[in-house]
Structures are given as structure tokens and as C-alpha cells.
Fold this sequence. Notes:
Blueprint: E1 9-10, H1 11-18, H2 22-34, E2 38-42, E3 45-48, H3 50-59, H4 64-67, H5 70-79, E4 84-91, E5 94-102, E6 105-112, H6 121-128, H7 132-146, H8 158-168, E7 169-170, E8 173-177, E9 184-191, E10 201-208, H9 215-234
Antiparallel strand pairs: 1-3, 2-3, 4-5, 4-10, 5-6, 7-8, 8-9, 9-10
Helix pairs in contact: 1-2, 5-9
Amino acid sequence: MLVESPDPLTTTEIARRLNLHQSSISRILTTLAQYGYVRRPSRGRFAPDFGLLSLAASTIPKFSLVTRPRAAMEQIAELCPGFSVTLGALWKGRMIYFLRTATGAPTVDFVTSDFPVHLSAPGLRLLVDLPREEALAILRGSRERFGWRGEDVVPSSEEEALDFATAQVAHDVLILPGWSRRGDVGAAIPVQSPDEGQQPLALSLTGTAKPGVDQDTLRLWLHDGRRLLESALRTP
């Protein structure tokens, strides 16, 4: 709650949202402040503190989706020069990325995104496979949180955007040319995780459209990349 709030919150506001007694919230926040997870930027108000960053940094290496596929992701980047390669999932209505890399660039671990889901090729590809009402609810939540923007080709409603994305899927790959920015292209394919109950994953390529790299090439790269990734994810 504190992380998602644009402003520091009072104990009264937190207690009301959680339907808990204010004294209980006050004791919890006092303990969290002692350990450096929250701070008091002003009297009676609380906000996240640096302890959360430290906790997140120490936790990331424990996720196999960050450690196992790293070499495979870097190999995929070599096969797809000029494109950014990401492995991500939808989590609580937004995209999170376990790995992001590109040829000649360092691999980045675990990136959260404040990017609207309707502009995200992997986000839309994952939505296509969800029940329609669930997918539309995620798009509506993204609109409320991040707004609704994009190039002229982007439909103005959640229903139209989902229908358009569904129609663009061919051979399991969604390709969106000039969607979030003119001259760019995004493409994504779902990836099967070996862990039961794991969030659905998507492998994506994004970058400037290039001569000689047509949609068939993007599909071929993503299918080859998916095979590499799924093999890496099955390896202990």
C-alpha cells in the first residue's frame, strides 16, 4: 500500500483501507520503521524506506526465473541483434521483467514497469490467453493507473485493443508494429514455466523496425528463443 501510494499515508488512512484498528497499524509501522522498511517523512505520515530496496536486492537471486535462464537470454540476444530481449510476467495488473538484455548491453535483473499494459507486446500477448473479462479488468486497471496513450493505430477502448491483439496473433506470436512509438516494433510469445502454479511468462523482442527483419523473421527468432528458454528453465 505504501509503495503504491503517490504520497505518504497516515495511520488513520492505512487503518481505514485495511479495516484494522489504528493502534494495531501504529505498532506495526513502528516496528517496520525500526528495521528501516518505512520512514516518517513528516509527522504522523509513513512512506517506504531504503530497507525495502535492500530486502528486494537480497531476494532477487533466490528466484529461478532470474538465475536459470540468464545464459539463454543472452544467447537469444545474440541471435536477435538490435533488439531488446525480455522475459516477463503479468503480476497484479502490471508487467514485471525477470531479465532484460540486448547485444553488447549488460543483462538487467528484475525490472518492474510503470508502462501501460495496453502498450506492452508481452502484456497484451499474455492477456489474449486469459478469460476475456479478466483481461479487460486488467486493461481497465492499467488505464486508471497509467492512462491510455499510443500511436494512431492503438484503439481507444479496452475491448477494441484486446480484440485487435487477439486478431494479430499468428503462430502463437503477437507482433505490434508502430504501436507504442512510431518506427518501433514489439513482438511476444508465451513461455511455459516448469513450475506448477507459476505466473504465465512471455518472451518479447522490442526495438526499431529494421530492413530485412520482417514479421516471419521475428516469429522465427521468438520460437527459437522459446525453445532455448524452456530448456534452460527445465534445467535444475
